[in-house]
């Protein structure tokens, strides 16, 4: 992993987490004492669940801001319930990054929308190849029936 050798020790990680918490935008900015008490939990949770102290984590902790009455309580809960960070996803067919969907039955891996909505493979236009594909499918079926 890039930067692996730069990983700070636990004390540094807690200090960095505290600094990160204090850098959160209002109304999420915790009191210094609160930041200190949350930093250890955040450092441990982030390390265990694959987060770095960056924009994605900031968004995870401060996103979905509607209907929140107590930001400190929500921040604390979000840190304690930090989910595993989803790996950066790429389309299982064409490798494009971005928003992916699970196309059940087409691919075990998530696909980008163009891949998920287009047919799995271009049908052959060669009649002989089509006939061969049909014969092959029939043979496979017969084999399955004999079992
Ligand atoms: Zn794709």
Give the helix/strand layout.
Blueprint: H1 10-22, H2 32-49, H3 55-62, H4 71-80, E1 100-101, E2 111-112, H5 113-117, H6 127-146
Antiparallel strand pairs: 1-2
Helix pairs in contact: 1-2, 2-4
The structure holds zinc ion.
The site of zinc ion (ZN) has 8 residues, from strand 2 and helix 5.
Beta-strand content: under 5%
Number of domains: 2
The backbone outline, from C-alpha atoms, is elongated
The structure class reads: mainly alpha
N- to C-terminal separation? 47 Å
The share of residues in helices is 40-55%
Descriptive account of the structure:
Helix content is 50%, strand content 3%. It has 147 residues and is mostly helical. The protein folds into two domains: 4-80, no CATH class; 100-146, no CATH class. It has a two-stranded antiparallel ribbon. The longest helix has 20 residues, at 127-146. It is elongated. The two termini are 47 Å apart. The mean pLDDT is 83. Bound molecules: zinc ion (ZN). Residues 91, 93-94, 96, 111-112, 114-115 line the site of zinc ion.
């Amino acid at each position: 992993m890039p930067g692996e050798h730069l990983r700070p020790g636990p004390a540094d990680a807690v200090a960095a987490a505290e600094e990160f918490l204090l850098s959160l935008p209002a109304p999420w900015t915790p009191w210094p004492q609160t930041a200190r008490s949350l930093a250890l939990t955040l450092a441990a949770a982030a390390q265990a669940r694959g987060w770095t102290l960056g924009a994605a984590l900031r968004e995870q902790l401060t996103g979905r801001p509607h209907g929140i009455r107590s930001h400190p309580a929500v921040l604390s809960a979000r840190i304690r319930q930090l989910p595993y960070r989803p790996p950066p996803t790429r389309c299982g067919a064409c490798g494009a990054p971005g928003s992916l969907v699970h196309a059940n039955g087409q691919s075990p891996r998530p696909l980008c929308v163009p891949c998920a909505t287009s047919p799995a493979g271009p049908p052959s236009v060669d009649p002989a190849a089509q006939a061969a594909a049909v014969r092959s499918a029939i043979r496979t079926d017969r084999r399955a029936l004999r079992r």
